[in-house]
Amino acid sequence: MASIKYPLILINFKAYSQSSGKKAVELAKVAEKVSKDTGITIAVAPQLTDLALVASQVEIPVFSQHVDAVDPGSRTGHVTLEAVRDAGAIGTMLNHSERRVRADEVDVVVKKAEKLGLVTVVCANTPEVTAAMAALGPDMVAIEPPELIGTGIPVSKAKPEVVLNSVKLVKKVNPSVKVLCGAGITTGDDVAAAIKLGTVGVLLASGVVKAKDWEKAIRDLVAPLLK
Amino acid sequence: MASIKYPLILINFKAYSQSSGKKAVELAKVAEKVSKDTGITIAVAPQLTDLALVASQVEIPVFSQHVDAVDPGSRTGHVTLEAVRDAGAIGTMLNHSERRVRADEVDVVVKKAEKLGLVTVVCANTPEVTAAMAALGPDMVAIEPPELIGTGIPVSKAKPEVVLNSVKLVKKVNPSVKVLCGAGITTGDDVAAAIKLGTVGVLLASGVVKAKDWEKAIRDLVAPLLK
Amino acid sequence: MASIKYPLILINFKAYSQSSGKKAVELAKVAEKVSKDTGITIAVAPQLTDLALVASQVEIPVFSQHVDAVDPGSRTGHVTLEAVRDAGAIGTMLNHSERRVRADEVDVVVKKAEKLGLVTVVCANTPEVTAAMAALGPDMVAIEPPELIGTGIPVSKAKPEVVLNSVKLVKKVNPSVKVLCGAGITTGDDVAAAIKLGTVGVLLASGVVKAKDWEKAIRDLVAPLLK
Amino acid sequence: MASIKYPLILINFKAYSQSSGKKAVELAKVAEKVSKDTGITIAVAPQLTDLALVASQVEIPVFSQHVDAVDPGSRTGHVTLEAVRDAGAIGTMLNHSERRVRADEVDVVVKKAEKLGLVTVVCANTPEVTAAMAALGPDMVAIEPPELIGTGIPVSKAKPEVVLNSVKLVKKVNPSVKVLCGAGITTGDDVAAAIKLGTVGVLLASGVVKAKDWEKAIRDLVAPLLK
Question: Helix, strand or coil for residue C107?
């Protein structure tokens, strides 16, 4: 079964043009290089269309950005967990604020991912929804207040109570579920603050993808984890 | 700008396990081989997750099975037309019966695909919906009665009036739009029947993907087009 | 079978608090009064929850704001055409920019409404989508550029080419379908301009619902139709 | 603030033709009569289109079958909590297996309903999803295994472990949330079994709606609650 060594830095490539197609492979290789140099787990979530290509080129964990709660077969334009596995990915994100799904779909995906040995990261927009997602038993939940996504204002500093409250509720509902936080994460300081709040790492996107120097941006993120 | 030489055989890999991951590349290479041998255009539509990988391995036209009507940027788990292009695909299918979208979304995608030089194949389930989709000006529409999909009972023989009526309505609404037909297509005879009804080719899936001998199945499909 | 006498003023109550619950009945009665006084057809589309109540209180045509493409039976939280009929409404709007549906759903609803003797008004956001909806054969299509909705800037004056182009395309695709226009309609002048562009009337909401004096606002709208 | 006296029998009219339009009022009056005679709380959830009409005719609690997570304003074809309140209903069902919504939507509706003094009943299909919904803090959750809905095979007898497990998980996650159960409930025995499993009542539909004698069916349901 796939497993992740924490802490974790998960870089979501979103649908940014800066990380699309061949540039997805380039960015993933930079992340791989920093991960190998530092020993810190850095995972990437490229666009759906780039998933198998990226996973064939790097050895760090690759996540799908989304998966549909359906089985293989006569289905067009869907992403199955089996396709994610066949593409060489380690698991999938789900329910990101930009691609929300229903709780019963998360339930189906989480139960099936466990059987297939895939890792699940279920996103949520409030502490209450984070607790609800934790009740479904994924490997990780990721609390991301949507109003901070892409702003560069880190949730771990601007709204620490949202992260703390999420960690507290998850501990009560399902203590085996790990918590990531995201939204506005850009620097190593933001990562350090996230860890202090009880998370096992961060989910971020523009802070790396839009950086002029990808390697420098990623090295800055992992720096506080090396001390 | 991308262009397609007709007649066209478009093989939809759907979410079948037989054509997932590395097997998607294998099947695409078989299609490429038959296309090179015969000069007939054979295109493939692998799973979303396999798109860039397959497109990097073959020279025949590769289509996405679906695209979202959104632009690149801060979007997670979506498929943009730009991602389809960056993946090396020639265009996209849209509105398949297994992944239907709204007419205004088809409108956005068709207008944008034209600007990007990508080819659009918009599916429809009835002659009236086929006419509606043709009014939006894609390169092709594909009429597929959902009740015949995956049955092996070819629409071109079992319901020729559905295909004929679609061709007639499209000619009236927007004569520059070409018509494919699909659902139950398995043999060269089915393809020949489709062409006689006024289509420029066929869209099929299980007839090839589930065949024991992919090459034999594809060669049988193109045979009547060589005479 | 239900039929509508043209020209038509269709007032969409939307989810405005000003026209919710008992106020929906009040507004409908004002519309009924002006209609009886002037002989002009004025129809109302109250909130879904108010449909049967409003229809039981007035004799002018009442439309549903939306309907689902499903049959009666074991379905929760849906609106069937049969429910619309049983509520006493004459028909339904569909595919409003604020509640868009897929083309195949419009196809199902239009075909079924014809059997049930209900009137259909299918909205569209561009001339091309208007043509697509006309291909499906509803009683009316309504072109409403979403960027003008609720602005008070009337489509019939600000973007006459959008209305003209829609009328032209509909005439080509399906000349039996009548055209309404909407978005920004507030005054009798806007209505007069709409009629001159080839429409049979208007669809409006805030111009009446948010008016301080409902009767004055509606009388102003119908005035140019009396000359 | 609205409050409910338990135990509760909640009758969902669904989109059944037997309980549509005027027949919705008739059925609600029968439920009201039995409730007055016995002192047991019997609530009804008519079709959306019948909501205000039914609520204006009876004094028992009336629920909406669904609500959208949106505010009043320029929105067409949606059901707001304010519309539910203005219609005279006491609250709303949400997330029924036949009309599922996302967890973040449940979160918005539950928080807003509390402010408006409306009662929420959130449905769920598995014990895990029931726990997730309880984490969002509604007044009630209703566990309904979808495979038993409409079968006449009562969940409280056929799958008691599903109900028990749901009750146990809800007690852990959020003990202030009450639990209903549904699916296949038809008789007083089924209700008695449900209460013994730790629920405060039942949610049912066809067992009453399709009964030849509505009053007899409802009297049978409440009988064990009178002892």
Answer: helix
- Strands B178-182 and B201-204 turn out to be parallel
Nearest to B74 among A14, A53, A73 (CB): A14
Residues of D with CB under 8 A from a CB of A: 95, 97, 100-104, 106-107, 124-126, 128-129, 131-137, 169, 172-173
Taking alpha carbons only, the member of D82, B12, B216 closest to residue A73 is B12
Which residues from chain C sit within 8 angstroms of residue D78, using beta carbons? 15, 48, 98-99
Place of tokens 């005054």: C187
What is the rounded CA–CA span in Å between residue B210 and residue C142? 45
**Pairwise CB contact (< 8 Å): B64 & A84:** no
- What gap in Å lies between CA C108 and CA A227, rounded to an integer? 64
Residues 6 or more apart in contact with residue C175 via CB below 8 angstroms: none
**Looking at the partner chain, which of C101, C131, C137 has a beta carbon nearest the beta carbon of B102?**
C101
Which of B25, B64, B76 is the best substitution to test chain A (most A C-beta atoms within 10 A)?
A: B76
* Touching chains, A (3+ CB pairs < 8 A): B, D
**B:C CB pairs within 8 Å:** 75
Phi and psi of A77, rounded to 5°? 75, 15
The answer to whether residue A144 is catalytic is yes
Count of other CB atoms within 10 angstroms of residue B91: 27
In angstroms, the CA B95 to CA B145 distance is 13
Q: What pTM value is reported for the model? A: 0.95
Between helices B103-116 and B127-134, what is the axis angle to 10°? 40
Q: What stretch of H or E contains A140?
A: strand A140-143
ipTM for the complex shown: 0.95
Q: Is the pLDDT of residue B2 over 80?
A: no
Give, as one character, the DSSP assignment of residue C5.
P
Domain boundaries, chain D: 8-226
Q: What is the three-class DSSP state of B217?
A: helix
Give me C159's structure tokens: 């973007």
Among chain A residues, CA nearest to D110: A128
Could you tell me which residues come within 8 angstroms of residue D36 by beta carbon, excluding any fewer than 6 positions away?
Answer: none
A205-218 average pLDDT score: 96
C218 contacts: CB under 8 Å, gap ≥ 6: C9, C11, C30, C31, C34, C42, C208
Residues of B with CB under 8 A from a CB of C: 95, 97, 100-104, 106-107, 124-126, 128-129, 131-137, 169, 172-173
What pLDDT is recorded for position B81? 98
Contact C218, C224 (CB under 8 A): no
- pLDDT value at B78 more than 60: yes
Task: Tell me the CATH architecture of domain B8-226.
Answer: Alpha-Beta Barrel (3.20)
